[in-house]
Write a structure and sequence with these properties.
Blueprint lengths: L14 H9 L8 E4 L7 H16 L3 E5 L2 E3 L2 E4 L7 H14 E2 L5 E7 L5 E7 L7 E2 L5 E6 L2 E4 L2 H11 L4 H17 L12 E8 L15 H4 L9 E5 L2 E6 L9 E6 L4 E5 L17 E4 H21 L6 E8 L4 E4 L22 E3 L8 H18 L19
Parallel strand pairs: 1-2, 16-18
Antiparallel strand pairs: 2-7, 3-4, 5-8, 6-7, 8-9, 9-10, 11-15, 11-17, 12-13, 13-14, 14-15, 17-19
Length: 403
């Protein structure tokens, strides 16, 4: 803030101090903005208000003056506004509901003018959170000089890294482990039908994204179909929306995809590992991982979910992961042509490759683009079964199912 008001408690600012802003021609800056009126009549007005407030909170903090006119960023007049209880209630309702997470430090002061009107001063502190504007916007803003601009992906990533005490990677790993733990215990959603579980997760690097789960644009059901499922239902529970598939003979779903208000996607399927052909299994082997079908469904789902998230305004960098759970005693089925001497029956319960980070701006427009990105996880899984790599990739790194 300018030296003129430094050290003056907000509640002590009077009309005299406001007149000094005009006399000294204190300009708008990264921490000061003048507005002659409060506009709240349309969604656009509400969005602009939330942009101004969140931009200050995402930057150095600062002051918004309502009731002061400016010309070329210089205060020119103090016409004042009519600010009553109804206006106050509407203003703060817009700010509280239109910015996520909520602004943690917002103080207001109403200055009564001699002309019978008022000037409203909002003091916004930088609170360490990254705030996102709603009202069909879902973007982040910052204050640069006298203007409010959209934060680029690099700005968002820098903010997250500079304010995080626990590394984002640690948070992601904790989220992944918690989800997989509920799957293994079969305490997730409506329960889980089947034994072996194929699952995936997608987690945005920015942890303060907030989706309006009840009012997502477009057709949610077709944007986030369950893995390997031809027909499914959906429901909202808490802060998440689910699509799920369930056979009439089963009590619990065999496949579920969840999208929560943080933009995280969690999905699993057990039907992929079900032996549909009554395959003759080697001694001590209890099941097969179908090497082509498994990879195909994971690639298809990752591509669909990532592109859908971007359509819903969730952009930037993503952490992605896939896992095989409860598959002790399974083998990787590759067909007679690719059987190898050191192919083994799995002795551990789960296969958990390291997760992969997809940088902002990475091309994911096709399934082949996604397949190249996630190949390291597939190679890791194949090696656990005794193979040197996934046999579904060509020498050019393209996903080409083995014959």
């Amino acid at each position: 803030m300018t030296q003129l008001l430094d050290g003056i408690p907000l509640q002590d600012i009077t009309e005299d101090q406001l007149n000094s802003l005009l006399l000294l021609k204190i300009p708008e800056s990264a921490q000061i903005e003048y507005k002659s009126e409060i506009k709240m009549g349309s969604d656009k007005d509400k969005r602009e208000l939330c942009k101004d407030v969140s931009a200050l909170a995402n930057s150095q903090g600062g002051y918004l003056f309502f009731g002061i006119s400016e010309t070329n960023d210089i205060p020119s007049d103090i016409p004042g506004i009519t600010f009553n209880d109804t206006t106050s209630q509407q203003l703060f309702q817009i700010i509280m509901s239109g910015i996520t997470p909520r602004i943690q430090s917002l103080v207001d002061h109403v200055i009564n003018l001699k002309n019978g009107l008022q000037v409203l001063v909002l003091k916004i502190e930088h609170d360490g959170y990254l705030h996102q504007v709603k009202y069909n916007d879902n973007r982040f803003y910052k204050r640069v000089g006298t203007i409010t601009i959209t934060m680029e992906s690099s700005d968002v990533e820098s903010f997250v890294k500079s304010t995080s005490t626990n590394t984002r990677q640690e948070d992601v790993q904790e989220t992944i482990d918690t989800y997989y733990g509920t799957l293994k215990e079969k305490k997730y959603f409506k329960g889980i039908e089947g034994k072996g579980i194929c699952a995936l997760t997608i987690i945005p690097e920015v942890s303060s994204i907030k989706l309006d789960i009840g009012n997502l644009p477009g057709d949610f059901n077709s944007s986030f179909p369950p893995i390997y499922c031809s027909g499914w239902g959906s429901e909202i529970t808490g802060h998440s929306k689910f699509t799920f598939g369930k056979r009439k003979i089963d009590i619990a779903p065999y496949t579920v995809t969840e999208v929560n208000d943080l933009g995280e996607v969690k999905a699993f399927n057990t039907f992929i590992f079900e032996d549909k052909n009554n395959t003759q299994l080697p001694e001590k082997c209890v099941g097969n991982v179908p090497s082509i079908a498994f990879e195909r469904e994971i690639i298809t789902s990752f591509h669909k979910y990532l592109t859908s998230l971007k359509e819903f305004g969730v952009t930037g960098s993503f952490f992605i992961h896939t896992v095989l759970l409860n598959i002790q005693g399974y083998m990787m089925y590759v067909g007679p042509k690719y059987m190898i001497d050191n192919q083994r029956i799995l002795e551990v319960e789960d296969i958990r490759p390291p997760f992969i980070q997809i940088p902002s701006g990475t091309n994911i427009s096709t399934q082949h683009d996604v397949a190249k990105i996630i190949r390291p996880m597939f190679d890791y899984i194949w090696r656990e079964f005794g193979f040197e790599r996934s046999y579904n990739y060509s020498s050019e790194d393209d996903w080409v199912p083995h014959s």
